[in-house]
Design goal:
- The complex is a heterodimer.
- Chain A is of the alpha+beta class.
- Helix content of chain A is 37%, strand content 15%.
- Chain A has a 5-stranded mixed sheet.
- By secondary structure, chain B is an alpha+beta fold.
- The radius of gyration of chain B is 28 Å and the shape is globular.
- The chains are: A alpha+beta, B alpha+beta.
- Chains A and B meet through helix 3, helix 4, helix 5, helix 6 and helix 7 of A and helix 1, helix 4 and helix 18 of B.
Chain lengths: 165, 803
């Protein structure tokens, strides 16, 4: 009965720079694996159907929904989570401005927002406010009304390009 | 409180934010509980059915399953939930069991629970529980539910009517008869839900040895829940601890006791171990309290000068099958009925609320609780009147607002108002909107067939509500807030507040107030909240009370501590307390050169008492509480302005600009206050444009995913400009009023009026929210048909009305 939950699959990947090898049930999502097996609870589970963006993680450089991606799919990949981006200092400026501008309230959406903001800011040009809002179109925030988040991302984008903020 | 210098009144960032941006927040589901059992629920697939049998045999044999639990397993552990409101003459509601006993009255009601070693195993097993139902007639629509021949939402009830309540003593019949103009507005508000991004979650542990129940849950009011668990599970208060860690959004929906959460606590007792449950998104849509479902009809009588004479209101509120426990579900309808016309001077007022049961989930608190409905009904009525008499809507408002000079008084609706600043808010709003320019531009664009609309919404908001509502109905909900402060050996301050924080920044505001009073930096104050084991008793988060009441308690506690620090400082410095200043974390004699740091003072108090001259043991802590007494709430007020463009080809509405002017009295932290307003506005917009729990005629929810139930996204919201009028509250020494619900209350009205203003040249108006594009197009098509009929009639020279 229910062979899927009994059989498990070997996986090996790198999470935030550390090599991980484990056995997982094929149906285990990447975000559940990260949260439950590795204790990386910064990626949040908001809808489990790929809409809210709270579970955003980076897999081989691409930001994707950790709830729609199975842990077995990540085999051999390099996975980065909010904890990894925080530790490396990659988004220290974004985090600083998010705090100063209070670009979050409950904070549940915040790691996912930061993942996608980091992705947007890695592009060459300074995004317009409209482009920032567009980039956030896969991330739900129920608390802020988004304006402070847009403000924060815009400020960091301009600062990174040496423009007045 | 003076705040010329120091942290109060400044945009101090939240200390918690540093954790949250690093993904180091700790929500219920982040708490590790090795060995705990996971609960999954079998939920009713019918809106109304009798339960004939439940076969758990197959499920019990599934891998990892420890126990399959049905209602009868919990009968001796847990009492059912029943709401009574004697002060309203409301009959006691039907018993709602943690797991349905023999009848399910809404789709999604929990019927059985699986306790298993993992959530996946529990969900697997839930699919193997066989429930045999006998489907019963369901009543889904609130207006249908009122009819005498309607099926009953719950078997055995005399009728579906939960409450009929009237406000005002005079229906103003003479005013309506003598009025120069009478206008009527009818609005249908569809059912919404709060959609916190973090779903409801609970971890419950029970130790049979100590008889103690420990609960971690995502909730706004830990003390309420301690007392609910204590009462329904038969445990003394001191054996129940409720702790709320970081909460990922609440908005009112996490203010109630839910049958599934009650079942989890009862299962912890049944099994004598730790069990946990986290709702998935479908469960959230099905089982979180819903809100807003209502129909409102309001009539306004005006004299020939455009002065308001009387308002008459009929309100209908759909409650769902049961009322949310323990606060009931009638608050939305009561607020909606009583607060229509609240900003305006009236001679007569009458409102009737009828609240009915239907086969849907219980409704409950959601940001603004009825006030958004009252505001929308009022302000669309005022705009209708302005169109009827050909007066600018801003001018009509100015003529009829309650003046600031009126001060404290009771309105014909029975609202106890303190001084309001509506005229000042209107002046500020018109200035920042550049109202006259907008009107000119609107005219110019109409000639190009571009339909822009300008709307405004004025509102009165009951904030910081005291005990008059729940206390009078014997509902055990703490109405006061408390604060404990103590000076630590490092010279810093640890503070425990009963006001809970779901991201509003209440803890930061409390830190600022304490720091201001003690002459230290806000970063030298740590505020903890949300745990009945350590916090003073208080309400938590409801009715915009965090800073207004929780902050006042913090101010009183900090003042007491300041007095104790001064008294001890006087002993140490051998200087009269009146000759000592406190600043920068130190005491300084005004006539001597001696200084004493808080750290040094605390070290003497805690470790070197022998150095002190004779006298009592130093006390460097203080606890104070505060409750609104002598006034039922603090009256805040404000305005929202909105500019929209309606695409008459597609029915799409774009919000171009949005402005808010708000008066919450003294502003402790302008950054956080503005963010409360913006976030509130976003939810108000959501209700008008997008949000709708869609039920079929048989009571089946058809849009239970985040892809189908629409909430505002970044691309759909405008930047929101916020301005303040600060009329310091005179009822408290802090002078702050509440702000958490303001944006939601006023935004809907402004948006309604803006959309109707845009469509006015076409003779169209909306009558139901949300304004989905198809509803907008239908309104436009109806108006076009009416215009065409009128034109045909005119060309045939016949009277279109009587033809």
């Amino acid at each position: 009965m229910n062979a899927t939950s009994k059989s498990s699959v070997d996986v090996a990947f790198v999470v935030n720079g550390s090599a991980i090898s484990d056995k997982v049930a094929p149906r285990t999502t990447l975000v559940d694996f990260l949260r439950q097996r590795l204790g990386l609870t910064g990626s949040h589970v908001g809808c489990e159907h790929g809409v809210c963006g709270a579970c955003h993680v980076r897999v081989d450089g691409t930001v994707l929904r950790g709830c729609l991606f199975l842990a077995v799919q990540a085999d051999g990949a390099e996975v980065q989570t909010i904890e990894g981006l925080s530790a490396s200092g990659e988004i220290a400026d974004l985090q600083e401005v998010f705090v100063r501008r209070n670009a979050m309230q409950c904070g549940f959406c915040t790691p996912g927002m930061l993942m996608i903001a980091a992705d947007l800011l890695a592009r060459r040009e300074v995004p317009s406010r409209e482009a920032i809002r567009d980039a956030l179109s896969g991330n739900y925030c129920r608390c802020t009304g988004y304006q402070s988040i847009v403000d924060a991302i815009e400020e960091v984008a301009r600062a990174r390009h040496g423009l007045a903020v | 409180m003076t705040q010329a210098h120091g942290p109060s009144g400044r945009a101090v960032p939240r200390a918690d934010a540093r954790r949250l941006v690093a993904g180091a927040g700790c929500y219920v589901d982040d708490i590790s509980t090795p060995g705990a059992l996971h609960i999954a629920f079998v939920r009713s697939t019918y809106a109304h059915a009798a339960i004939l049998s439940i076969d758990t045999a197959a499920a019990a044999l599934m891998p990892g399953v420890v126990r399959v639990v049905c209602a009868t397993d919990l009968e001796r552990i847990c009492k059912p939930m029943q709401v009574a409101m004697p002060a309203l003459d409301m009959p006691t509601t039907s018993a709602q069991f943690p797991l349905a006993l023999d009848e399910v009255c809404w789709q999604g009601a929990p019927v059985a629970a699986i306790a298993a070693q993992s959530r996946a195993q529990a969900e697997d097993a839930a699919e193997h529980v066989l429930v045999e139902y006998d489907e019963l007639p369901a009543v889904v629509d609130a207006e249908q539910a009122m009819k005498p021949d309607s099926p009953r939402a719950v078997r055995g009830r005399h009728s579906n009517m939960a409450l009929e309540h009237t406000f005002g003593t005079n229906n103003g019949a003479a005013s309506f008869a003598a009025a120069a103009t009478v206008v009527e507005q009818r609005i249908v508000f569809d059912r919404q839900t709060g959609v916190s991004l973090e779903s409801r979650g609970i971890i419950a542990s029970y130790s049979p040895l100590s008889g103690e129940l420990t609960v971690h849950m995502s909730h706004q009011s830990p003390f309420q829940m301690r007392d609910v668990f204590s009462d329904l599970l038969g445990l003394p208060n001191h054996k129940v601890r409720v702790s709320c860690p970081d909460v990922g959004g609440a908005f009112g929906l996490k203010l109630h006791a839910y049958p599934d959460e009650l079942a989890v606590a009862a299962i912890a007792i049944l099994l004598g171990r730790t069990v946990r449950f986290q709702a998935d998104r479908l469960e959230s849509f099905l089982s979180d309290t819903h809100a807003r479902e209502a129909v409102g009809v309001a009539r306004l009588a005006l004299d020939s000068a455009g002065r308001f004479l009387a308002i008459d209101v009929e309100a209908l509120s759909g409650l769902g099958a049961y009322q949310a426990y323990p606060r009931g579900s009638v608050g939305e309808g009561l607020h909606m009925a009583q607060m229509v016309g609240a900003p305006y001077q009236l001679n007569h007022f009458r409102a009737r609320l009828r609240a009915v049961h239907q086969n849907k989930p219980p409704t409950g608190a959601y940001r603004g609780v009825g006030q958004p409905l009252a505001c929308t009904l009022t302000e669309t009525l005022v705009d209708r009147a302005a169109r009827a008499i050909g007066m600018d809507p801003a001018e009509l408002r100015r003529r009829n607002y309650i003046s600031a000079e009126r001060g404290s008084h009771t309105t014909p609706a029975g609202l106890q108002m303190s001084a309001v600043s509506l005229h000042a808010c209107l002046d500020t709003l018109l200035a920042i909107m550049q109202y006259e320019d907008l009107r000119r531009e609107q005219q110019r664009l109409r000639e190009q067939r571009i339909y822009r609309g300008i709307g405004m919404g004025s509102f009165i908001e009951m904030t910081a509500v005291g005990s008059a509502v729940y206390g009078a109905n014997h509902i055990a909900v703490p109405a006061q807030e408390g604060c404990s402060v103590r000076l630590e050996p490092s010279g810093t301050v640890l503070c425990h507040s009963s006001a809970t924080d779901q991201g509003q920044g209440v803890r930061t505001g409390v830190a600022q107030i304490v720091a201001q009073t003690l002459g230290i930096d806000a970063t030298d104050v740590t505020v903890r909240a949300g745990d009945t084991a350590s916090s003073p008793v208080g309400g938590g988060a409801w009715a915009s009370r965090g800073i207004a009441i929780g902050g006042q308690a913090a101010l009183l506690a900090a003042e007491d501590l300041r007095g104790k620090i001064l008294a001890l400082g006087a002993r140490i410095l051998e200087t009269p307390a009146e000759q000592i200043d406190i600043a920068d974390g130190a005491l300084r004699g005004t006539t001597t050169a001696r200084t004493l740091s808080f750290a040094e003072l605390a070290n003497i108090a805690y470790f070197r008492q022998h150095q002190l001259s004779a006298g009592a043991c130093p006390e460097l802590s203080a606890t104070r509480h505060y409750v609104s007494r002598g006034f039922p709430y603090l009256t805040a007020n404000g305005m929202v302005g909105c500019l929209v463009e309606v695409d008459i080809e597609t029915g799409m509405i774009e919000i171009l600009r949005l402005w808010v002017v708000h008066d919450c009295g003294r502003v402790i932290n302008p950054l956080l206050v503005d963010e409360q307003i913006r976030g509130g506005v976003a939810q108000g917009i959501g209700g008008v444009l997008y949000e709708h729990c869609e039920y079929s005629e048989s009571g089946q929810l058809s849009n239970g995913t985040l892809a189908d139930y629409l909430v505002p996204m970044a691309g759909e919201l405008p930047d929101i400009e916020v301005a303040h009028v600060a009329s310091v509250a005179t009822e408290t020494s802090l002078g702050a009023k509440g702000v958490g619900e303001a944006g939601t209350i006023g935004a809907g009205a402004a948006l309604w009026n803006a959309v109707n203003d845009a469509m006015a040249p076409l003779g169209a108006a909306m009558e139901q929210q949300p304004f989905s594009p198809d509803r907008v197009l239908r309104a436009l098509a109806t108006a076009a048909r009416a215009r065409k009929a009128a034109a045909v009639a005119a060309s045939a020279n016949i009277d279109p009305v009587n033809a």
